[in-house]
Amino acid sequence: MSIVDVAAPRSASQQMLILVGICIAVLVLPLNFGGAAVSAPAIGTTLGGSPVAANWILNAFMLSFGSSLMASGALADLFGRKRVFAIGVVLFALTSLGIAAAPTLLWVDFQRALQGIAAALVLAGASAALAQEFDGHERARAFSMLGTTFGIGLALGPLLAGFLTETFGWRSFFLVDAAIGLSGFALGVPKLRESYDPNATGLDWPGAASFTAALTLFTFGLLQGPESGWSSPLIIGLFSGAVAMFIAFVWIEKHAFRPMLDLSLFRYPRFVGVQALPLATAFCYVTLLLVLPTRFIGIEGHSAIDAGLMMLSLSAPMLFVPITAAFLTRWMSAGVISAAGLVIAAVGMLWFSGIAPDAPSDALTLPLFIIGVGAGLPWGLMDGLSVSVVPKERAGMATGIFSTTRVAGEGMTLAIAGAILAVLTRLRLSDALAAFPPVSRDAAAQAAQRVATGDLPHAVALLPALGQPILAQAYDGAFRILLHILVAITLASALVVLGFLGRTPSTASPTDTGPALLGGEGAVD
């Protein structure tokens, strides 16, 4: 139940104006998602800073976005969907302007963290507001248009960022971000009605704080590990703190009157299976969407525009494949289609891993396209699956948990992939250094981090004996192994999805065999 401000009935043109305004405002989220990855090498070159600070350009946004999403939904119910959406859009625009004027890399990282919080407010407020503004078939059409907006943003973000970065500098991309967001604000917010949840009791602050702390400590440990050493007191302390915060989060959610995440939903096996889908697409698609621009620009020397064009092969399938996947459900279950898509993506990654680094860019088009097609199949189905595998009265909480798993999982998989790439690069450099005079351990570790983030000039300065060709070769070998690891994870995820979601039962039913850790009714203590 919601309380909606009383107003005259909407005309079709007014509703369309609101919908267009919200979609334009939301467009900055997917544009920024892939676009920032294309601009990141130029940001690092201009502002300098450590490899860890460079990694936070992407990870700070993903981390704060994922950890704030559920809290933002609660705030929208409590203080008003329109208000939260409007605050989110304005904050996103202000942080974009702050990044455009950034004097240091640390300032960019700080603004990106705030931008992730703003993105969570925008998405939570927009989704809840649309649900109140539209009913029945019109609501389905509105959310379909919102989904299409995300597809357009994912497809065009790298291309737009590449063009702006190459033509006007990386700061221009964030200025355009701000302009787009404020345009959507001007169109959508004035006519949008305010709505609240009268039963909202407030935010689960202890749960939100412990969840955010666990993600932050874990991500920081992954990013800092290759440089500080995995057995260093700092890294051990960070991972220990992350485990402690996660345990505290589970305990808090089990005992909270209105928990941020109702963990008892994990007693539904098919709901557990659905959570594997965003994690799988994070490994086979999102990671590449964010890591490949570094390779294309920093390692292979392509321009930002060329990198954006190359990324289009990966992202363009998101414009049409999700719709195709929904059409295919007439003949096959969503679980089978999703598992098949993951296998297709794995085949594309395996093909991509076999292409020589000096091959023409055209050679990458088809394997990247296949990866995008494969990832697009589950991408178009998993939102619907997340609410179809639990009772209808728990669909709202299921959506919240799924969205949190999706965004937070994407941030964690990016950090994991970055750590693996840095470790593998370090091992490759160690082999290459065996034929040269000994160098300090710190220099080798820092050089590996520089190479992994696409900063070859600084890596050469740290290890001048190797030279740029050998460093690039070390990166290429490490990247191939990373792709093979991602292939294995994606195929394993396909088996999990097929096992949990391959069949479609008539009703959603819990089981008492769920993990005791998650508690909930019927769980074994």
Keywords:
525 residues, mainly alpha, Growth Hormone, Chain: A, two-stranded antiparallel sheet, 18 helices, disordered C terminus, membrane, MFS_trans_sf
Descriptive overview:
By secondary structure, this protein is mainly alpha-helical. It has three domains: 11-203, MFS general substrate transporter like domains (Growth Hormone, Chain: A, Up-down Bundle); 204-259; 265-507, Up-down Bundle (Growth Hormone, Chain: A), CATH 1.20.1250.20. The protein is 76% helix and 1% strand. It is built from 18 helices and two strands. It has helices spanning 12-47, 51-79, 81-100, 105-133, 136-168, 170-188, 205-228, 233-255, 269-299, 304-315, 321-328, 334-353, 365-379, 382-388, 395-433, 441-452, 456-462, 467-501; strands spanning 3-4, 195-196. It has a two-stranded antiparallel ribbon with strand order 1-2. Helix 2 (51-79) runs antiparallel to helix 3. The chain crosses the membrane at residues 16-33, 53-72, 84-107, 113-131, 143-164, 202-222, 234-252, 272-292, 304-328, 335-356, 368-390, 411-429, 481-501. Residues 18-505 form the Major facilitator superfamily (MFS) profile domain. Keywords: Membrane, Transmembrane, Transmembrane helix. Resistance to tetracycline by an active tetracycline efflux. This is an energy-dependent process that decreases the accumulation of the antibiotic in whole cells. This protein functions as a metal-tetracycline/H(+) antiporter. Pfam families: MFS_1.
